[in-house]
Amino acid sequence: MAKNTSRPKWDEYFMKVAYLVSERSSCLRRQVGAVLVNDRHVLATGYNGAPAGITHCDIVGCLRQKLNVPSGERHEICRGLHAEQNVFLQAARHGISAKDSILYITHTPCSICAKMIVNVGIKEVIVAGDYPDKMAASFLKEAKVKLRKIKIK
């Protein structure tokens, strides 16, 4: 029997899942997806957008966009939660521990999410795209959380 060479490697597979998850985002500025994985099994997913029961930005507009707030700044005036925050909340809601898991994210985390990543016990963060927050990488490095960037097809 011939080996199927078109199967994606694990990192590519989970990152493609993260990109698919990001398609649910209601953010007007950037669509981000996150996938929490342990032992090659998906534990939870999350995307950026307004919390359940709160009108989405694609309906009411974006205050940060209206005020010309640069990307990576003034998170506190955003209606939405980040994909990383949502993946952790989804896991917690279902009683799933994130400790020693791998987090696949379509973009590098912000510094707020990096601190959450450290505190929930993620062992590795794998990203494909960038986000303008250099402090995040320094937090992950200091806490000895591996950060790796990959390219996918």
Distance between the termini: 26 Å
Percent strand: 15-25%
Q: Categorize the overall geometry.
A: globular
Rg is 16 Å
Instruction: Please list the strands of the largest sheet in the order they lie side by side.
Output: 2-1-3-4-5
Helix percentage: 25-40%
Run of helices and strands? HEEHHHEHEHE
Mean pLDDT: 93
SS content category: alpha/beta
Number of helices: 6
Major β-sheet annotation = 5 strands, mixed
The unreliable regions are none
* DSSP strand tally: 5
Overview features:
alpha/beta, 153 residues, 5-stranded mixed sheet, 33% helix
What can you tell me about this protein's structure?
With 153 residues, this protein is an alpha/beta fold. Helices cover 33% and strands 19% of the residues. It has 6 helices and 5 strands; from the N terminus they run αββαααβαβαβ. It has helices spanning 10-22, 57-60, 63-66, 83-93, 111-120, 134-142, and strands at 33-38, 41-47, 102-107, 124-129, 146-149. A 5-stranded mixed sheet has the order 2-1-3-4-5, with helices on both faces. Strand 4, helix 6 and strand 5 form a beta-alpha-beta unit. The protein is globular. The two termini are 26 Å apart. The model has no long low-confidence stretch (mean pLDDT 93).
